[in-house]
Amino acid sequence: MLENEFPSVAVIGIGLMGSALTAALLRSGYRVNIWNRTPEKCASLAAQGANVSPSAEAAVAASGIIILAISDYANSKTVAASAGLLGKTVVQISTGSMMDAVEFHSFCTAGGAAEYMEVKIMTYPALVESGTSLLLASGTPEVYIKLKPLLETFGKSRFVGEIISSATSAMFAWSAHFQISVAGVLESIRAAKALGVEPALVQEIASFVGIDVDGIFSRWQNAADRIGPPGLAKSGTVFDYIVAADLIIGSTDLAGITLPVLNAVRTELYKWVDYGFGHADVEDAFEAARRHSENLTTG
Amino acid sequence: MLENEFPSVAVIGIGLMGSALTAALLRSGYRVNIWNRTPEKCASLAAQGANVSPSAEAAVAASGIIILAISDYANSKTVAASAGLLGKTVVQISTGSMMDAVEFHSFCTAGGAAEYMEVKIMTYPALVESGTSLLLASGTPEVYIKLKPLLETFGKSRFVGEIISSATSAMFAWSAHFQISVAGVLESIRAAKALGVEPALVQEIASFVGIDVDGIFSRWQNAADRIGPPGLAKSGTVFDYIVAADLIIGSTDLAGITLPVLNAVRTELYKWVDYGFGHADVEDAFEAARRHSENLTTG
């Protein structure tokens, strides 16, 4: 096995996605240096062979390729400023706006990064870990070709374009459907309750036609306990929706187009927060909103 | 092969769904008597072995089980009144409200039908023909058990309940998601155009995660040329949406619940009709709505 076939990779941030990326890399034979603000989360990956670094700086210094799996771009800047990126190949997977992507690329270039690629992961951590994910990449084609074997550790990858924000644009375009679709699943469950049908039957029909309702629910449920985006003390399922909807609507508004259905979804989301269900499971939030409107009607 | 193993079945109405039902029955060994208002549509099924009846009355008289695959309940009543249902087992697959289902059941019982079952088909005609559909049934459990082998010719079947409108309720509950989901696909394509991403990429991502975007579009496109529901001269893709959304929203409103996302979808649908795109392909209608709003902005 040649040394440069399996280069040393740093994974900075060991949340749900960082853990999945690390597990997939380790299984494919990469040497992985990991760092997390709270080191406790690194224990099971250490048992699988990951090298737990005492600092982000140490993880970066020991690696040629740096994967940033941190909550957002602001935290990415803080970590990158302290760790240094001189001569490194940077892969950014955090979620932010297209402007965030452009700014962070400039920041890394100014900091001496040798190569840079935006990679947006379109599936759940479990699919990343099993190598059946879908990744969208934007940046320099030569860097994409170099990184492709590494990205294929996580699943199928697709080069979207040289404009650095292209992967984010494509993710938002698709996410509009995802956001609306999840709202559709929840509305269909509300409709079932109203029409005297077991909500479980809706899930049964959905699973027959190939919609992974359990996956959708568990994805948002899993998100309930992790640290959230800036401005929100804690991420919850409804807040996750709002942040995603705001990013998509903000970007499409700038491009001169409105998305009426997604706007309706966002309006509903803010109602749930008003009812005090910002941190709650989305189905609970729907239930609360229904009770709230019943109270308005009856009282 | 015993005579009563493969009873003689009438299929009344040879549209897209009636054709698929007949083809599946013929392949499974049933003797099928078909009738359609315009007999030309029966030619290819006749070549496959179907007996083309000169009248609905003749088709019903020659059959023990009568499948009604007519556009709606009003037309079903007209045909049933002229053909007679005395002693027959009636399977109603037309789309209507829950009240339609209750009324038509009473109508058939009063007309002497021996057995009755509401069956709602949750998938495309192509899946019915290949025997991989999903059917929801409501009525008497004994009738369901008797009809199950016949229903399995079309795919998987599920008994929903004894209340005759239950299958319709379950279909509406699920359809709320389907309507919203299709609107979500179209909004994601609009978003892609706004954000400078190839719309084809949205379809590529959708197909990767298991959403059949081509199937969704072709389903509605196929609907554009068939005869529509009462009150509309001709069914088109946007009208199909409106009728479905109206039925779901009407039924859930009666049950005391509103569906905000589906309401937003309906509001959009009516806008498209205002723009003159009621009979058009839904993606064209979205395109027209976008141009319309651009004109409002720039002019």
Automatic annotation (TrEMBL), chains A, B:
Pfam families: NAD_binding_2. Gene3D superfamilies: NAD(P)-binding Rossmann-like Domain. Residues 9-159 form the 6-phosphogluconate dehydrogenase NADP-binding domain. InterPro entries: 6PGDH_NADP-bd (IPR006115), HIBADH-related_NP60_sf (IPR051265), NAD(P)-bd_dom_sf (IPR036291). Coiled coil: none annotated. GO terms for molecular function: NADP binding. This is 6-phosphogluconate dehydrogenase NADP-binding domain-containing protein. It comes from Pseudomonas jessenii. The lineage of its organism: Bacteria, Pseudomonadati, Pseudomonadota, Gammaproteobacteria, Pseudomonadales.
